[in-house]
Amino acid sequence: MAVVCCLLLVACAEKGPEEQTFQELHDEAIKNEVILMIGNSFYTNSDFEDYLLLTIGENHKETSDLSRSRLLDSFMEEKLLLAAARDQGIFLTEEEKKAYIARLSREFKLSEGMVKEEVEINTLLEKRLIEKFTLGLVEDISVSSEEIMEYYTSHKKDFLRQEKRRVSQILLKTEDQAIEVYKKVRGATEEEFRKIAREESEGMEASRGGEIGLFEWGQLPLEMDKVVFSLRQGQVSQVIESEYGYHIFRIDEVIKSAPLPDKPDQEVSSKIEMKILNQKINEIVQNYLERLKSDLNWDFYPDRLNFSYQKNEYE
Q: pTM for this one?
């Protein structure tokens, strides 16, 4: 309470009482409340607001308390890693700082001066230091060909190419219209179907002769999936009603699922390697953070937050 009173007095000194309401003074005091202390460093609600702005942008005020809670967990973990980096004497060289600012300038199409004006450059440099420190923790990690093969063998269904169907449709507003058109197309050739689709269909794809694309099971509404995947290539469906109107589907092509090879190709191997690598990195960093939480002198004050913190149920 004493701290809050002092902050209120400071705020009053900066702005006359006739200009600033009590609510504004109270909000200012809350912003400066310390929510996290790590050693001799402390972080306020305002610091966390800056983190939210940097992480998710201007719409961060619309974020739910649950989402804010998980973002706060990440904020605290970053500050713990920052403290560990500093304790171990790891820092950014002037060349690294300049290179990072130049990279930001290229990515955001801003001059170096504009970068410094629009964002707090020290906060960005701290994030770069955390990134450098974290990379040092995981720089020796690798994934063997045996691990890739073991993952591939255990997760083959994830790489199975599903059967696909190339589909066209004629869409009409009324059932009577649809029935009349169905009589015309049920025995029609593909060319005849496309001509009728251009002339009769009210769907956006009418100009393409009704072509709507290539689909796997699950990409269309269930009732449509059931119809589309029951038809043979070249076959036309009966009239199907949906919230959009009345559909007549045609299966232009059936692409069968291909059997998987005994070994993954280069593209699949690269995806598996990246997945395993990310799993290893996450595990190492999380284990390191758990040790930091035990070893470092730190305190978290959830009661001082400007939102209702919700503890991570998986911790």
A: 0.62
Residue 246 is encoded by which pair of tokens?
């009345």
Altogether, the residues listed in the chain come to a count of: 315
Instruction: Read off the pLDDT of residues 13-62 as tens digits, 9 standing for 90 and up.
Output: 455 544 567 566 656 778 899 999 999 999 999 999 988 988 888 788 88
> How many other β-carbons are positioned within 10 Å of the β-carbon of residue 83?
18
Bridge-based pairing of strands 164-172 and 211-216 is antiparallel
Nearest-10 Cα torsion for 95, 101, 106, 111: -120
Strand partners, 246: 172, 241
Query: And the tokens for 166?
Result: 């190339």
Domain 161-255 in this protein, CATH class: alpha beta
Q: How far apart are CA 206 and CA 198, in angstroms?
A: 5
- 60-97 pLDDT, tens digit per residue, is 888 899 999 999 999 999 999 999 999 999 999 999 99
Give strand pairing partners of 214: 166
